[in-house]
Amino acid sequence: MAHRLREYGTGQLVTLRNHTPEDIVVLVRQLMGGHVPKIEVDDGEEVARIILDMARQQYV
């Protein structure tokens, strides 16, 4: 998932391993106030690939 965040320039990877609950609150507040760019996809196949790539990253 981290590579997708970098690729699309959206959000920030947050994990309980590397962030305290207090850190997460601060980051969520910052991200909620920021701009979220629209990610253009060409069709359902592209969306499925993005979702599968993200899911695979969770198990690596």
Name some characteristics of this structure.
60 residues, 57% helix, mainly alpha
Outline, from the CA principal axes? flat
Please give the count of helices.
3
Fraction in beta strands: under 5%
Q: Rg to the nearest angstrom?
A: 13 Å
Q: In terms of structural class, how would the helical and strand content be classed?
A: mainly alpha
Largest sheet: none
**Secondary-structure element sequence?**
HHH
First-to-last CA distance: 10 Å
How many domain modules?
Answer: 1
Q: Give the overall average pLDDT.
A: 76
Helix content: 55-70%
What assembly state would you assign to the polypeptide chains in this entry? single chain
**Which spans of ≥5 residues are poorly predicted at pLDDT below 50?**
none
What's the β-strand tally? 0
Task: Compile the SSE list and pairings.
Layout (H helix, E strand, L loop, with lengths): L1 H7 L12 H12 L11 H15 L2
Structure report:
- The protein has 60 residues and is mainly alpha-helical.
- The protein has one domain.
- The chain is 57% helix and 0% strand.
- The chain contains three helices and no strands.
- It is flat and about 40 Å long.
- It starts with a helix and ends with a helix.
